[in-house]
From TrEMBL:
Domain of life: Bacteria
InterPro entries per UniProt: MoCofactor_Util/Proc (IPR052698), XdhC_Rossmann_dom (IPR027051)
The protein, known as: Predicted sulfurylase large subunit (Molybdopterin cytosine dinucleotide biosynthesis)
Species per Swiss-Prot/TrEMBL record: Rhizobium subbaraonis
Residue ranges constituting the XdhC Rossmann domain according to the UniProt record: 77-218
Pfam family, one: XdhC_C
Amino acid sequence: MDPLLLRKLNAERRARRAVIHLTELEGGRDRIVREGDTVAGTLGSAIEAAFRSGKSGTFEAEGQNFFLNVHLPPARIVVIGAVHISQALAVVAKVSGYDLSVIDPRTAFATEERFAGVDLVADWPEDVLKVRPLDRYTALVAVTHDPKIDDLPLLQALKSGCFYVGALGSRKTHAKRVERLLAAGAPQQLLDRISAPIGLDIGAVSPAEIAVAIMADIIQAFRRRDLRTEAKP
C-alpha cells in the first residue's frame, strides 16, 4: 500500500470512522472509501453491503475484480444507569461482540461487586462524556428513570448521531421526557429517533429479558443504520 494511503487509513481508524480499502485485483490500483461516500452501480451496492456486515471479501463489478478490506470502528454501548438491566446487558453485549461501559453517579449502584469486569464509571454522564465522546458507532442506553441523569446524555447522543438511542420507561414516562427535551431546544425530528419504550417488543418482563430485547434492538439498528447520516454539530 502507498505510504500516503496507509497514513490516511490509519488516521480514519484513529478517528473512529468506518472505511474500506478498495483494491482492483488486476491492476493493483487502490483507494480509501469512507462510509457515506457515493459510489455508483453494483460496486456501490457491494460497498454498502460490506459496511453493513463488516466483512471483507472479493467482488466482481463491471468486468473487474475488487477486494474490499473493511475497517469498522468497534461498535460500543454506553449505558447510563447501573441497574439490574445493565448487569444483564453487560453479559449479552459481551457475547454479541459489543464493548460496553456503564456510567452512573450513584455510588450505591455503581459498585465493582455488582459490575465485576465491566467498564464502570461512577460519575455524572456530562463529565464522563466530555472525555469519552459519543459517536456514530455508539449505542446510548438510558435506564436510570432519573431525568437529572438521563436527559443530558440522551441529547448528546442524538446530536452526536449515535446509531441507537434508547430510553427505559412507559409511553407516559417517555411523553414527559419528550416535553422536557423539546423545552431544552431539541427538535422533534431528533427526538423521534429515541427507542422508547426501549428494546424490541418481545413481551419482555425480567431484567434479563429486557436486556435481550435491548440488545436485539441495538443489533438491528446497527445493521440497518443510515450510512449517509452525518453527525449533528
